[in-house]
TrEMBL record:
Pfam families: LacI, Peripla_BP_3. InterPro entries: HTH_LacI (IPR000843), LacI/GalR-like_sensor (IPR046335), Lambda_DNA-bd_dom_sf (IPR010982), Peripla_BP_I (IPR028082). It comes from the Bacteria. The keyword Lipid biosynthesis does not apply. GO terms for molecular function: DNA-binding transcription factor activity; transcription cis-regulatory region binding. This is LacI family transcriptional regulator. CDD domains: HTH_LacI, PBP1_LacI_sugar_binding-like. Residues 5-47 form the HTH lacI-type domain. The keyword Transcription regulation applies. Keywords: DNA-binding, Repressor, Transcription, Transcription regulation.
Amino acid sequence: MKQRLKISEIAALSGVSISTVSRVLAGKANTRASTRDKVLAVAQQQGVLDNLHSGRLLLNNLMVFAPPRAFDVRSDIFYYKVIQGIAQAIAPHEVRLRYCALEENESDTSLFLEKMQQTDAALLVGIDDDHIHQLAAEINKPCVLINAMDRRMRLSSVSPHHQLIGESAARYLFEQGHRQILSLHCLRRYTMEQRLQGVRDAWHAMNLRFDSRQHLLTLTSFSRLEAAERLGEYLKHCPLAQRPTAILASGDYIAAGAVEALQQAGLRVPQDVSVMSMDGFNLAAIHDIPLTSVQVPRDELGAEAVRIVQSMRLNAQALPGTLLLHGKLVVRESVRRIRDNPSHAPVQQHGLYD
């Protein structure tokens, strides 16, 4: 009875029918945006939204902006799966989901503004263009970044905690007794630089010196072929005493290339050299070797972004923030525990790294 009275009050104050208020509060899509906004504003004043079930999405339309490669599973499986996660998150709701390809940088401003006029809220996947961030912040609509950050702190975002993921992966190898660890990293984007910084942090925490000339191979892509070629050349010129006991790859396909290079060099995984990845979804096993990895959150990014959009819809005055999702360590068989090996030169210990 009290709830019915509240709906009647909201209808009277909004100048709409009781049935319209009911549809809006139920998250139904068959209401004009202006009418819905008016009803929600009154409902907020009456305190109804404070107890509204969080499962209702108070939107008619949601637009997803992402780089063109994100819509092709063969070009970028990570972003492709993130977008699938968004679709799954809104599937139970009456929300129209639409997509727009937008470059990461130097984005098409006119296209972005045109599409924003057609939606109630937006999710920007991997878009780094600061001008787009500024426009999104100035448009009075919920807008959340996924795996990107607004350096001027105007927009909310959700991302994997890349730096902690990198640190956690390297720390696990240290805990397994490894000291000669070679990192294979593609630094195509600042998120990968954050992972590498986490790896450096783990070395620093162990009071070990990270020498990028000895402990790092940088790649231009995440391809298996490039990783195999680069590591193969490295192994040819690496003195036996400095040969790594473990390879830490920044992605599953890089890990696959590393395993190929090691096998071509006559080395066994993990008996001679361990291999670990920071990905863990694309290749559960490489050449029948189950892959130990820190799984980077992926499908969860979309669901969390949708929740943030909903909270912004319920409380437009909430401060923007950044949600960092942890990875998950999955221990399989590509990493073995070792004891100190006198055949390997000791790693120099001190409190600095380059």
